[in-house]
Write a structure and sequence with these properties.
7 helices; mainly alpha; single chain
Length: about 130
């Protein structure tokens, strides 16, 4: 029971963070537009990352696809964290580092989920068919 609660917590926390940011990305909030303009990828990067985060959040919540959602979330957040470290800075428009912190939380949780659910990758029918072909 405790293990199940922990697994669902590890799924729900990043999914909620990913879903929460969708409103700001898809509504072209000034902060989102500023971020992606600074990165030189507005609006394509904003909308594209929003779609990626939507897919990641949904897949994380589907028990048989958690690894794949976590992998997408991990990759997306790796880019977000790198963007903060190398271009934007930890604090963006006086947010106190909130966006950076949320990206770091999702990155860590997705990394943990990838480790826990790594067998989903190896047991996926397409992976079995093409990678372990005899």
């Amino acid at each position: 029971m405790k293990k199940n609660l922990l697994l669902w917590t590890l799924r729900i926390v990043p999914a909620l963070i990913l879903f929460q940011t969708l409103y700001f990305k898809f509504s072209a909030s000034p902060e989102s537009v500023f971020i992606f303009s600074t990165l030189g990828i507005e609006p394509t990067g904003r909308i594209g990352s929003g779609i990626g985060e939507l897919i990641a959040g949904l897949l994380i919540l589907i028990p048989t696809l958690t690894f794949f959602g976590a992998a997408i979330g991990f990759g997306t957040m790796l880019v977000a964290v790198a963007s903060h470290l190398f271009v934007l800075g930890i604090e963006v428009q006086e947010d106190g580092g909130l966006l950076f912190s949320l990206a770091l939380i999702v990155l860590i949780f997705c990394g943990i989920l990838m480790v826990i659910f790594r067998n989903q990758l190896l047991s996926h029918p397409l992976i079995k068919r093409y990678l372990f072909k005899r």
